[in-house]
Task: inverse folding
């Protein structure tokens, strides 16, 4: 078992490297299981495991009756703050971004939300459900909360653009700091519905707390990203 795992992991990493260096180009038909078996001198079972993981991780797309093809590159997002980071980062990758508001409602402040925003019980909070698309493919589902007293009466057209830019331009509120917690989760029924993926598919999960320069919490959000469509880059700068 250990040997099999080692072999399929090695083959998978080698094939990923070839995809990333354009040995196998986007949209190109991928070698068959038989071809890969012969090249690496391994069993079909070992190759099948490696290829299944490449499909699950978004490197390959299977087409019934035709075989496997190299998928479009994942949407790469940098975990650093800009007011319109989503569209800016997609544009740099030659992709077209879109935000669609799915639901906007006002809910009463209770429990953890009341404490997080330092509100009085039942103070109104705007609950925002949005999806984000890259080249018309859903990559992210977000549930955000913004207290009414922070930005009263947020509108659909504002929420289908940059929320942080809206807060600055319309409400004169600048985001000074965001704290983001990244985990891996599995899509439940609700998440799979919005992300258009299978229940149980691995997803990135990010909780974000956004504060102004006084430390007041302006927004809290939970975001789910398709693991087969998204990757993240972390930038760090060090003093010389």
Result:
């Amino acid at each position: 078992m250990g040997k099999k795992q080692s072999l399929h992991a090695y083959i998978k990493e080698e094939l990923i490297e070839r995809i990333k260096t354009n040995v196998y180009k986007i949209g190109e038909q991928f070698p068959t299981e038989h071809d890969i078996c012969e090249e690496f001198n391994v069993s079909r079972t070992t190759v099948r495991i490696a290829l299944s993981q490449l499909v699950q991780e978004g490197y390959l797309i299977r087409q019934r009756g035709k075989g496997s093809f190299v998928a479009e590159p994942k949407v790469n997002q940098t975990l650093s703050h800009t007011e319109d980071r989503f569209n800016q980062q997609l544009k740099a990758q030659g992709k077209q971004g879109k935000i669609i508001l799915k639901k906007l409602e006002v809910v009463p402040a209770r429990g953890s939300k009341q404490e997080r925003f330092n509100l009085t019980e039942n103070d109104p909070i705007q609950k925002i459900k949005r999806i984000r698309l890259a080249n018309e493919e859903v990559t992210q589902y977000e549930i955000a909360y913004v207290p009414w007293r922070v930005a009263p009466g947020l509108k659909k057209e504002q929420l289908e653009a940059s929320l942080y830019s809206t807060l600055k331009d319309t409400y004169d509120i600048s985001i000074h700091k965001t704290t983001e917690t990244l985990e891996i989760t599995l899509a439940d029924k609700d998440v799979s519905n919005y992300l258009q993926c299978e229940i149980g598919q691995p997803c990135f999960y990010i909780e974000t707390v956004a504060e102004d320069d006084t430390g007041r919490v302006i927004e809290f959000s939970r975001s789910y990203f398709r693991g087969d469509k998204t990757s993240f880059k972390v930038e760090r700068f060090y003093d010389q």
Notes: The chain has a mean pLDDT of 85. Helices lie at 2-20, 33-40, 44-56, 85-92, 111-117, 156-159, 163-171, 189-195. The chain has two domains: 2-70, 75-233.
